[in-house]
Amino acid sequence: MPKKVIQPKVDLQSTIDELQSKLARALADYANLERRFSEQSSAVVKFATSSLLTKLLDVRDHLGLASTQIKDPSLTMILNSLDKILVEEGVTTVKTDGVYDPVSMECQEMGPGTKDQVIQVIRPGYRLHDRILRTARVIVGAGSSRPLVGADPRVRPINTQN
């Protein structure tokens, strides 16, 4: 008879161990799920405005082009105000000086100049925090020694000095 009592204790202990192991895994899975949900929620909040900001960048480009043609202090003030808002929302200009970066730039054309170096910006690119909102359109050097003269004077990146 004592053997029957010992056997259920062993069975119960193995069942307890198994259930404790399952509970520990379930708690770890739940903690991971909470962490993933928190990360995704913060990313949604962080980038919720990206669609609107992308549309505002087109308006900003048009105002920038207009300000190169029309020297009006009111237009400059509006453009500076829009730039300030964009910067406050986390928008920054993609750096286009130096080596061509296919992630943040679109090569529109190859021109005379140092190989794989950006030689002219056609349209500035922008980032929202760590993501590309809009790629920069650039002309990239093809490797010949004769450089392209001058950049497009109409291209004016966001003024971050406000």
TrEMBL record:
Domain of life: Bacteria
One Pfam family per UniProt: GrpE
Annotated GO biological process: protein folding
Keywords: Chaperone, Coiled coil, Cytoplasm, Stress response
Keyword Cytoplasm in record: yes
One term under GO cellular component: cytoplasm
Record's subcellular location: Cytoplasm
GO molecular function: adenyl-nucleotide exchange factor activity; protein homodimerization activity; protein-folding chaperone binding; unfolded protein binding
Residue ranges that the Swiss-Prot or TrEMBL entry lists as coiled coil: 9-36
PANTHER family: GRPE PROTEIN, GRPE PROTEIN HOMOLOG, MITOCHONDRIAL
Family to which the UniProt record says this protein belongs: Belongs to the GrpE family.
Described purpose of this protein according to its UniProt entry: Participates actively in the response to hyperosmotic and heat shock by preventing the aggregation of stress-denatured proteins, in association with DnaK and GrpE. It is the nucleotide exchange factor for DnaK and may function as a thermosensor. Unfolded proteins bind initially to DnaJ; upon interaction with the DnaJ-bound protein, DnaK hydrolyzes its bound ATP, resulting in the formation of a stable complex. GrpE releases ADP from DnaK; ATP binding to DnaK triggers the release of the substrate protein, thus completing the reaction cycle.
Record note on quaternary structure: Homodimer.
Name under which the protein is recorded: Protein GrpE
Biological source species: Candidatus Collierbacteria bacterium CG09_land_8_20_14_0_10_46_12
Gene: grpE
